[in-house]
Design goal:
This protein is an alpha+beta fold. About 15% of the residues lie in helices and about 40% in strands. It is globular, with a radius of gyration of 18 Å.
Length: about 240
């Protein structure tokens, strides 16, 4: 069983110079109690990923034969911590099942929609209001975990996700966006990580992983306004 890396091991990643994360203990604290209004990890957008790199081998720091210096100091290690961080953030979100939105409501990209028949995805439920000012209300929603114990196969995938619901002054929903997801079967997974700034710029990076490699699928940048979520075009 894979064990999470200790703070001492995590320092190896920092010393590699690839990415300057905060300390591991601070990195895993509840992001729902943070003092500032940014949501996610800014370091995610500061790292330039290659299009492909080798997947991290299973790490067991409880093994008596394990040595810190044997840890691979590459993008595979960074990916390990990104996956753990965003899963922890997802896991800490507590839902209110009195406020529900059907999964089919979200009009996100073809990486999810075109494979809808092969994805087991629960509806979304209210977590918290992130922002409510200047005519914009942003609510965070999370799937209900209905299929968490579903027996996944090579054909069917289970989707866990976080989503934003954007409402106007009259309370009418004007837009929505799935910002985090982990869509996986027994041999591969697709991931979407995000960073939302206090001034409502949204950054999303997407990845695909199989048994041997990780693939960087690109970055998207959006701005959230009273008109909805506007995608920034690449210059």
């Amino acid at each position: 069983m894979k064990k999470y890396l200790t703070a001492a091991i995590y320092a190896i990643v920092i010393s590699a110079g690839l990415l300057s994360f905060t300390s591991y203990s601070a990195y895993t604290k509840s992001y729902w109690c943070q003092s500032r209004n940014d949501l996610g990890d800014k370091n995610m957008i500061n790292c330039e990923f290659p299009l492909k790199w080798s997947a991290l081998n299973e790490v067991d720091d409880q093994n008596p034969d394990f040595k810190i210096k044997s840890l691979n100091k590459g993008y595979d290690t960074i990916m390990y911590f990104l996956e753990k961080h965003y899963y922890d953030l997802y896991d800490q979100a507590k839902i209110n099942k009195k406020k529900e939105i059907e999964f089919s409501f979200f009009k996100d990209g073809s990486d999810i929609k075109n494979k809808r028949n092969y994805i087991k995805a629960d509806n979304a439920y209210f977590v918290k209001t992130i922002k409510n000012s200047n005519g914009v209300k942003i609510d965070l929603y999370k799937d209900g975990g209905k299929f968490d114990n579903f027996s996944i196969t090579e054909q069917f995938k289970v989707l866990n996700y976080l989503a934003l619901i954007i409402s106007g002054e009259n309370g009418r929903i004007i837009d929505s966006k799935i910002i985090y997801y982990n869509c996986k079967n027994i041999i591969e997974s697709d991931n979407s990580f995000f960073y939302l700034t206090d001034d409502l710029f949204l950054f999303i990076k997407k990845f695909h992983s199989d048994e041997t490699d990780h693939y960087y699928k690109g970055e998207e940048k959006y701005e959230i306004t009273a008109e909805g979520i506007k995608k920034h075009k690449k210059k």
